[in-house]
Amino acid sequence: MKTKIIIICILFAQQLFAQSYQKIHDKAILIDTHNDILMKIVNDGVAFDTDLTGKTHSDLARLKKGGLDVQLFSVFCDGTQVNPYAYANQQMDSLDAVLKRNPDKIVKVANTKELSTAVKQHKIAAMFVVEGGHMIENDLNKLEVLYNRGARYMTLTWNNSTNWASSAYDETYNNDLTKSGLSDFGKQVVKKMNALGMMVDISHVGVQTFWDVIKTTTKPIIASHSAVYALCQHQRNLNDEQIKAIAKNGGVIQVNFYSAFLDNNYIKKAEDFFAKHANEEKSLTAGGMNEFQSEEFLFNKYKNEVEPFRVPLSVLIDHIEYIIKLVGADYVGIGSDFDGIQSPPQELDDVTNYPLITKALVEKGYSKKEITKILGGNFLRVLKANEAKNKSK
User: Fold this and answer.
1) What is the pTM of this model?
2) Cα radius of gyration (the chain)
């Protein structure tokens, strides 16, 4: 009898805990600042408002199931894309079509006021973001057009540099790079973004570009999808001095879910996996798949081989905690990079699993107030600080 009572008490306690973290999750405004599904809509022809389970990390119904309130949709192409500005607009068109078909479920918002209204109406608030300054084609007018279409941050570079800003990849690996940091035009870009109310995103930029941005910007900046260099020495991650500088600037670091940015051991294990399946990968690329598509195909086909070297969810939480311990809970958030990465942490298989992050933070002892900030409050603060009433001419 005593054993039965103990079991009942344990089950009751577990139920109370589940209700506790789920209640925090449901009441918070959950914001993910980086999702690459638009790339798949355009390149792979998937329909975001259909069930894409098993094909993508996200679709409209699953975003809602995961408790997401605000999604920033990345407009992305690499440096080889012909006419990148036109391609950026094509990706924007693809989401606008989804919005038009589903006005009761998702709506594009321009500012924190419209965002708040959408959340109160139980609709997903959508914003565009531009991942790579090459998409403005060295034209401030094109930057403003993208802003007017709904882009609320721009990542100054992707892995490729522009002629006005150097990337983390090039500053680390490109021996032919003759000048690093922001050029005079690059500083004009930052100032124009400040004037528009468009957040400056330093994910992907080189260290010199980062410090030039810090010296130039008059508004809080973001790292939309980056992690901690002290825990994983990848050029895409932020060192302690950069993290401190973002906090001093009043900005926020949105932690990336990609295993390669979370664990130093991941890349070697992934390389071994692709070496094992090299012949099949060659066949896939010869058949028309790009590198990302072929790698993703192999990851999905051989899930049993991949699962052991995906990083545990606890490692993602370690990156969030590191930032909190270094600068406080006011400067960290979530930028998953879903549908732009092959390998998120174990358990975070898709966007329905966001509540597991809230659960982990509750288990770590963080308060409801702190967790609410991490899930979206910190980003809302930075977005509001960047909003500008008057545009520059």
Assistant:
1) 0.93
2) 21
